[in-house]
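Hi Y.,

Following your request, here is the sequence exactly as I used it, all 256 residues.
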Amino acid sequence: MKTLIYLPFIILLTFFLKISVSAQSIIDFETGAVFTGYNNVRIPGDRGTYFSLKDDLKAKTEVFYRFRASYVIKSRHTLSLLYAPLETKSEGSVANDIFFEGVLFPAKTELTGTYKFNSYRLTYRYDLVHKSRFVFGLGFTAKIRDAKIALSSPGLTSEKTNVGFVPIINFRLLWNVNDKFGILLDGDALAAPQGRAEDIQIATTYKLSDHFGIRAGYRILEGGAKNDKVYNFALFHYASVGLSYTFMNRKESNER
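Below is the corresponding structure, written out as tokens. Let me know if you'd prefer a different format.
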């Protein structure tokens, strides 16, 4: 089932990576450190024990990476594909029993918690404003989440997995302070009665050349859902750096 869900994204990624240099395409890599702000869990959502993967157990700082491939059509239309994996570990013990997804973990036993939230996103965005110094666009993101929350101790283990589709609003605002430096604010965000999701970054950008650009900044990932099956709300802070490479089309290359 998971293979069928990911197949369109694999095909699109292959397409992006094989785009001719005659098309204006962009590949982007981002990495850095991710810190847990909070991560509160109760599974099942109506009968499980409420506990924190940040405060009751101690969350580790993790290294993250993200990869995005984008295709720009007539300057204002952008299609992009993002692969954003995330997995964190928490360890420790608590003074009370924890009932988690059908398993009772006794008090004062050593516990290991695993939180996985891999994200696959296909985005279309249109630039409402497209000027040399200022760019602002709005769009739509189709996101597939591959999520897992697991808890284990010596002799016991239990996990809750979920694969699902989430529609989100996409936005991007870029202010080019001068020919080299810029300020970027972009992300995906949406809130509903069932839950919410926000993935937003603010960064300083620097243009190394017509092809290469770098950035450094802060990203926040926050959201969650609550129902009778699961209660989970989490917040993550990212200290990130990024590198992008732009393939210039033939017309632009000849002009230079």
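Residues 2-17 form the longest helix (16 residues).

Thanks again,
Q.
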